[in-house]
Design brief:
Blueprint (H helix, E strand, L loop, with lengths): L1 H16 L8 E9 L16 E13 L4 E10 L5 E8 L3 E15 L3 E2 L2 E2 L4 E3 L21 H15 L1 E2 L3 E17 L2 E19 L2 E2 L5 E24 L3 E14 L3 E5 L11 E2 L4 E2 L8 E2 L2 E3 L2 E5 L4 E14 L3 E14 L28 E17 L2 E14 L5 E3 L5 E2 L10 E3 L5 E15 L2 E14 L6 E15 L2 E14 L42 E15 L2 E13 L28 E16 L5 E19 L27 E22 L3 E20 L19 E15 L4 E15 L11 E3 L1 E6 L10 E3 L9 E13 L1
Parallel strand pairs: 8-15, 13-42
Antiparallel strand pairs: 1-2, 1-43, 2-3, 3-4, 4-5, 5-10, 6-9, 7-8, 10-11, 11-13, 12-13, 13-14, 14-21, 15-20, 16-17, 18-19, 19-26, 21-22, 22-23, 23-24, 24-28, 25-27, 28-29, 29-30, 30-31, 31-32, 32-33, 33-34, 34-35, 35-36, 36-37, 37-38, 38-39, 39-43, 40-41, 41-42
């Protein structure tokens, strides 16, 4: 009843405001029936459910004498994806716009979990698994009999799994815009926006030490945020000069700043007296959470997105100049701040005061970023049909967050004796940058049917605490031709050559603050290396880019039109990678070890799109459209497997031993990715009875495939050994068919009745959404995945919700609409 009242009000309210207006309005109501669909993918970003609703609403009123107007627009009113807008004002003087948008994103309606929310931010289970953590002889390792713990988990899930409500988010966005123009040369605009977002997303709850000793589980993460923004702009224009000022102040508030989830594997915190030096448990004092010399927390905890705010002010001045020139200069200052209270390193009381904020170097984030923008350009005509535009742009981001020395407890686990790994002693670095670009653009139009352009540009980026600085030269050439009255051709070619400075593979060392004496194993990221020295990060490596776009539009007859386009991009990241001796001068055994000098990381990426469109309207009664496209993306990546715990030792001893030496060519692997998407469709309309009965129909088909081709390190190893075994996976693919048929019959000049039928089918096969082959297997249910091919450590086990975004479906939707025009 409430929804019906809102609909009636939306229909009647506008007419009362402009009773003498020249109106042109319509309202369309609908009754809809939908097959039950057991897949969130069908309604991922929309709301097609059974029921009555206001399909669309259009009202426009205008008074010629006063120049006042009122416009009301609405779609899907009363649904989760509704849009409503009201606009009123006086042309050339003032205006008010109020807009409301509902935006839905459904993730899954097929998830199960042993967890339940206790409050808004806390997940709990009714009991714990009670994993066995010691062997018969009392040694501090998880029970080597995999079946014992696996069966306990499977039994736990069979007792406690329950269906979760539909997971996803709902956003509500409201906007109010006020416009005022007191004179022809002055205009001001103020907008206020507020958006709320509520729901859940699919997340993960790791507890414990680093992999493979992590106790992992898939869980829903709560979302309850509010974003607000004030935006003001004012402009003044004179004959030779104009000025525009803009100011914005966005804020973000998170009603859930901390997320807590219970450890489903182990029981309450216990100090459990233990001899951690000898890995033995003292008789009668077993602590269920004291595993792997780590006190594993009963609860996991992490901070969610923090409250923050920003301000930005921008001033633009435009002016006229010689040679029919026009120049603009823009300057902007921005500031972003976040000072959320910090959480302690750990939740657990077993970690010797790591659960106290007293261990932190400061109690709040104190994060601050300042930005500066300067942009200048001048467009002038040195000769007839010839334009020149030189330009310059500089953008600088300064991270003014105070740096500090931190040490964190990995995933709420630490030694009960109070220590943490030396590799967990880190500094928060200020990752600022400055981007500068300058160039010149020229255009030449020798005739009305031809236009040519050329752009030369240089861009430099200086980065703080990154591996390299970059400079890029770019050339872009464009052409637009109309050789025949019915043929238009456009082409664009871009070449970019980016060169990085000498690559500093040691740059990550500045993020550590431990001393050499603290190193107690054969991994030392600060004084050796963090990433392999031959690795090149693609955003700061050398790159050669080639873009080519070509399009043609043809109208060989007034009723017939075609367009075809082809676009390609090729990025080559080949860099000058030479062998280095990363251990030289360190005094370690591997001082003379020399890398292979073969670039690791992303080597190349290419993409291409070929598309075709056609339109045919031979008469007033017929229309026909068709389209087709093929999109391809190819990537080439190279990596290397090696044992970090061995890199300080004599590497010559480990060449030929799988995955041991960082200098062994046998440890190189390559992965080539191929993504293909093919779409086609056809549609048309037919006036069965002119001005009385119309038929509309369309059909669309889409198929996408993803292939990964793996070769090199581990590709030949049998899965039964598994430690270094990898395989080329099966093709992941999806196919979608969508067919629409709509009839509309005009009963009278004001009333039309419509009937619509929609059929949609989606089919997907994705190896990433389930266990495959012998690499992973289900135990007890599909909700517990394990890999027993390497060993029995807990990092090889994972409890999931078994709900994912895109299960296959097919459905039918039928709706009856009534359109009323007044």
């Amino acid at each position: 009843m409430k929804k019906l009242t809102v609909i009636i009000a939306l229909i009647l309210f506008p007419s009362a405001l402009l009773a003498q207006a020249e109106n042109m309005s319509e309202v369309v109501t609908a009754v809809q029936g939908v097959d039950q669909v057991d897949s969130a993918k069908f309604n991922e970003y929309r709301d097609l459910d059974t029921g009555f609703y206001l399909y669309s609403l259009r009202y426009r009123g205008y008074e010629a004498d006063s120049a006042r107007f009122l416009e009301l627009r609405g779609n899907q009113v009363g649904r989760d994806d509704q849009h409503i807008a009201v606009e009123a004002g006086k042309y050339g003087s003032w205006g008010v716009t109020a807009e409301w948008n509902s935006l839905v994103h459904r993730l899954t309606n097929d998830a199960f979990s042993p967890y339940s929310f206790s409050g808004k931010n806390r997940l709990v289970v009714p009991e714990v698994v009670g994993i066995l953590t010691t062997t018969a002889d009392g040694r501090k390792y998880l029970n080597p009999d995999a079946a014992v713990n696996d069966q306990k988990i499977a039994s736990f899930l069979s007792r406690n799994l329950h269906e979760l409500p539909e997971l996803g988010t709902q956003r509500q966005r409201g906007t109010l815009v006020l416009q005022y123009a007191p004179a022809a040369s002055i205009e001001a605009r103020l907008s206020l926006t507020q958006e709320t977002k509520e729901g859940e997303k699919i997340s993960y709850g790791p507890i414990g030490d680093r992999p493979p000793r992590t106790l992992g589980v898939e869980i829903p993460e709560p979302i309850d945020t509010t974003s607000r923004e004030l935006h003001f702009e004012a402009a003044w224009a004179a004959r030779r000069v104009d000025v525009q000022f803009e100011f914005s102040a966005p804020t973000f508030e998170n009603d859930i700043d901390t997320f807590v989830w219970q450890n489903m594997y182990a029981g309450p915190d216990s100090d459990g007296a233990a001899d951690y030096n000898n890995d033995v448990i003292l008789a009668g004092a077993v602590g269920t959470n004291d595993i792997f010399r780590r006190a594993v927390s009963t609860f996991g905890q992490r901070a969610l997105f923090p409250d923050n705010n920003a301000t930005n002010a921008m001033l633009t001045v435009g002016f006229g100049g010689p040679m029919s020139g026009r120049g603009t200069v823009t300057a902007a200052l921005g500031r972003m701040e976040q000072d959320q209270d910090l959480l302690p390193y750990s939740y657990s009381s077993l970690t010797k005061d790591w659960n106290s904020v007293a261990k932190l170097p400061r109690l709040s984030a104190g994060a601050e970023i300042n930005t500066t923008l300067v942009d200048a350009q001048y467009d002038f005509k040195p000769a007839a049909r010839f334009n020149v535009r030189p330009y310059f742009r500089s953008y600088k981001l300064d991270d003014d967050t105070p740096e500090a020395r931190w040490q964190y407890v990995t995933q709420d686990a630490a030694s009960p004796t109070g220590g943490v790994s030396y590799k967990n002693k880190r500094v928060n670095l200020r990752y600022g940058f400055e981007r500068r670009s300058f160039g010149i653009e020229t255009t030449w139009a020798p005739a009305r049917t031809a236009n040519f352009g050329l752009v030369l540009q240089r861009e430099s980026v200086d980065r703080d605490h990154r591996e390299a600085q970059t400079d890029e030269n770019m050339l872009r050439a464009t052409a637009s031709l109309r050789p025949l009255s019915w043929l238009n051709l456009r082409a664009r070619y871009t070449f970019g050559d980016r060169n990085s400075s000498e690559y500093d593979w040691r740059s990550a060392a500045s993020s550590y603050w431990y001393d050499p004496a603290e190193v107690n194993d054969h991994d030392n990221p600060r004084f050796t290396f963090y990433n392999h020295p031959d690795l090149r990060r693609f955003d700061v490596s050398d790159r050669r880019r080639r873009d080519f776009d070509l399009s043609a539009s043809l109208t060989p007859a007034p009723a017939l039109g075609f367009s075809i386009s082809w676009a390609t991009r090729d990025d080559d990241y080949d860099s000058d990678v030479r062998p280095v001796r990363p251990m030289a001068g360190t005094g370690f055994e591997s001082e003379d070890a020399q890398t292979l000098g073969r670039q690791l990381g992303l080597l190349a990426r290419s993409s291409g799109v070929l598309s075709f469109d056609a339109n045919w309207a031979p008469g007033d009664r017929y229309t026909l459209t068709a389209f087709a496209s093929i999109e391809a993306v190819d990537t080439d990546q190279r990596g290397m497997g090696f044992n970090e715990d061995r890199k300080m030792e004599n590497q010559a001893l480990y060449v030929g031993q799988a995955g041991q030496a960082f200098i062994d060519p046998a440890n190189i692997w390559d992965t080539k990715g191929e993504d293909r998407t093919r779409t086609l469709g056809i549609g048309g309309s037919f006036a069965v009875i002119p001005e009385r009965l119309d038929v509309f129909a369309d059909y669309a088909y889409s198929r996408g495939t993803t292939d990964l081709h793996y070769s090199g390190f581990g590709a030949d190893a049998p899965l039964t050994t598994a430690y270094y075994a990898f395989r080329t996976p099966e093709t992941a693919e999806h196919t979608q068919h969508t067919a629409n048929v709509r009839f509309e019959y005009r009963v009278s000049e004001r009333i039309a009745v419509g009937l619509r039928y929609l059929y949609e089918e989606f089919d997907t096969t994705d190896w990433m959404q389930g266990p495959i082959g012998g690499w992973a297997e289900t135990v007890g249910s599909d909700y517990f995945l394990r890999d027993t091919t390497r060993d029995n450590r807990w990092g090889n086990r994972f409890v999931r919700m078994a709900g994912y975004l895109a299960p296959s479906y097919s459905t039918n939707v039928a709706s009856l609409t009534v359109r009323y025009i007044w």
